[in-house]
């Protein structure tokens, strides 16, 4: 079965990065093309008011990262929250990355806010919690590229931690077999992370910037997370019409 995934794009890239990377939707398409589960993708930029037609059905809905705060009250964010709550109540599978990870936690009873730890950048390593069947291939620890100054600080009551670190205790979580979210960016590549660090160098400060740049020598496991997400969706997935 080929999975049918709706990607809800919640940002536009900085102008100097558009020619090479196009957008988060394209970056996710490139990522998922490198994992083995067959899937097709449709991208909607919700900042621009783009959404699936009322009758459209997908095996899962993925909310991307964004420069915006998940706890902000911009009209497009409120519209997205209403849309995702409706999808959750219908029993659809939901995936969240960074902003999406935080927004879904907020929406479903948790908390997200500016992190007292400050900016997380570069490559970061997480400890994995209890394994589940969709976490294939198995790995000992999870390493992802990150770029965030907000974090989930309280999980929804029915959520379980998937990955954590001292810096980011709720780095990944799931709600049963319906919701799976990651604070890190599996879709990032090292060159994109380096470009973001260079753009934000003055804002980050030399210590955070230099530490982030040095960490880019480490590999990351974005492709593994992509396969986990598709296996999570394929587990008991309802076929799209």
Characterize the structure shown.
- There is one protein chain.
- With 241 residues, the protein is of the alpha/beta class.
- The protein contains eight helices and eleven strands.
- The chain has helices spanning 15-21, 24-32, 75-89, 99-107, 190-199, 201-204, 206-215, 222-234, and strands at residues 3-9, 39-45, 60-63, 93-97, 111-114, 120-128, 141-148, 150-154, 160-164, 172-175, 179-182.
- The strands form two sheets. It has a nine-stranded mixed sheet with strand order 2-1-3-4-11-10-9-6-7, sandwiched between helices. It has a two-stranded antiparallel ribbon with strand order 5-8.
- The chain starts with a strand and ends in a 7-residue tail after the last helix.
- The relative contact order is 0.18.
- The mean pLDDT is 91.
Summarize the topology.
Blueprint: E1 3-9, H1 15-21, H2 24-32, E2 39-45, E3 60-63, H3 75-89, E4 93-97, H4 99-107, E5 111-114, E6 120-128, E7 141-148, E8 150-154, E9 160-164, E10 172-175, E11 179-182, H5 190-199, H6 201-204, H7 206-215, H8 222-234
């Amino acid at each position: 079965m080929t999975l049918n995934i709706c990607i809800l794009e919640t940002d536009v890239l900085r102008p100097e990065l558009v020619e090479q990377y196009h957008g988060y939707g394209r970056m996710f398409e490139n990522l998922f093309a490198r994992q083995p589960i067959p899937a097709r993708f449709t991208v909607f930029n919700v900042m621009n008011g783009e959404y699936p037609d009322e009758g459209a059905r997908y095996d899962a809905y993925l909310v991307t990262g964004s420069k915006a705060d998940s706890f902000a009250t911009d009209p497009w964010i409120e519209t997205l929250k209403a849309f995702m709550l409706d999808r959750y109540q219908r029993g659809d599978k939901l995936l969240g990355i960074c902003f999406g990870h935080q927004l879904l936690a907020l929406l479903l009873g948790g908390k997200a806010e500016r992190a007292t730890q400050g900016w997380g950048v570069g490559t970061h390593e997480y400890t994995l919690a209890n394994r589940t069947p969709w976490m294939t291939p198995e790995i000992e620890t999870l390493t992802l590229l990150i770029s965030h100054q907000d974090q989930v600080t309280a999980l929804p009551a029915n959520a379980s931690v998937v990955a954590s670190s001292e810096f980011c205790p709720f780095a990944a979580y799931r709600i049963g077999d319906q919701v799976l979210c990651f604070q890190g960016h599996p879709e990032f590549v090292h060159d994109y992370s380096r470009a973001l660090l260079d753009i934000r160098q003055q804002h980050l400060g030399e210590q955070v910037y230099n530490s982030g740049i040095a960490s880019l020598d480490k590999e990351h496991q974005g492709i593994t997370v992509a396969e986990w997400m598709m296996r999570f969706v394929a587990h008991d997935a309802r076929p799209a019409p």
